[in-house]
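Hey, quick one: can you model this chain's 3D structure?
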Amino acid sequence: MSNRALAFTPERLLQTLNCLPPVKSYIIGYSGGADSTALVHALSKIHEQLKTPFSAVHINHGIHSDADHWQKQCEVFCQRHDVELECIRVELKNESGKGLEAEARHLRYDAITKRLKPGDCLLTAHHADDQAETVLLNLMRGSGVDGLSAMPESRPLGHGVLQRPLLRFRNSALQNYLRENNVGWTDDPSNHYLDHDRNFMRHQVIPLLEQRWPEVGQRLLLSCEAMGDARHLLEALADEYLGSNLPHPSVLTITPECHANKQLFKLVTRRWIRQSKLSSIPVYKLDTLCDQVRHAGSDNQISVNWDGYALRWYKNQLWLSEDKEPLPCPDINWTEEQADIDLGKDAGQLSLVNSTLSEHQGGPLRHSFPKGEFSVGCRINMKESFNHRGGHHKSLKNLFQSADIPPWLRNAIPLCRLDGELVALGDWCIAKPFENWLHEKGMRLEWRPQHPLLQFIAKQQQRQKH
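Sure thing. Here's the predicted structure for all 466 residues.
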């Protein structure tokens, strides 16, 4: 990249921080390398003008044989400059399948994120060279607008925020600052291993590009800014759609307009998943889902899985959840001695309660209990029909379909039987004879599921019932 780098000074750092959203305290990610050392040193010079308390945190990955020595150097440096330092040791197992470098980064951020309180800000020392490398790496990965806009200067992180105040400065400017102030730093030899993609980009690809285009760094950053502008416009479009088509945080309605527009479908789905704070869905899996949905009927069951999560399609809606289905409702004989019954961590509880009491007036208060054998179970191996209102018999499948309940959630819905006859589906679909008995006794059946999607379904059905 061009050698005409903006000089780094504590005063320029202060100007940058004053332009970023205000916070209550700063926590500096301090590795001991040149970049983070320049950040810690400069902050120590402007702490009186800054008027915001700050400290540092060092993550010891234990990968290199000198890791403990590097930690000691960080402790000595911070003590010398009157900076509070917390050292955290993490254990890498290299079991993620994404490589040691990626696992180290994840553990590093995870350890710090857990310590952030509202108003806290993690400051990292990412600089202009890092930004240019990120753009090229994301380009090689086939990234879209999000990836090509690279690292934002500020973003939410856990209960706090992450800010990168050095993105305008080159690495050479930071090292020049350290030399001018006679400040040493630690050089991790792994930064020169060319088997790491970023190191290969830094030491091989960018120098070659600079031979042809000396201003390649500035050009990449201009493209990054343009992609950032485009991303903000697309996010606003997606947010407008999500604002009126999210009946539940994990349920997205796909309108006919969105169904017919592949680009809009992918845009709102990606944005929705990101707002859910889940890992991004791989591009090829989202493409596959989009193509399958556009050529399928509303009742088709379509799903994609990634990183322990699943997107499922049913009746013009996408359902986002863990890839495992809720536990089925267990088979339980309900006896008069039980005030209510426990159906497990997903299906929750089922109760017979006094219908004259509101749900806020405490636990169940029973005056009567059905005569005969009363039991609860799920639809597995249940083929019988249901004597619905008006004396019409409907199959369980038809009842579930008419209630728009996705197939993968149906086994968790409690079904009540009285003397072997199906009398209730959940607490909203009640057979007429049993409904008459409940009314006569001043009772009501109340289901309180624990799984978020089952809670959504229960509320939906009660709303439609009334």
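One thing worth noting: The longest helix spans residues 216-244.
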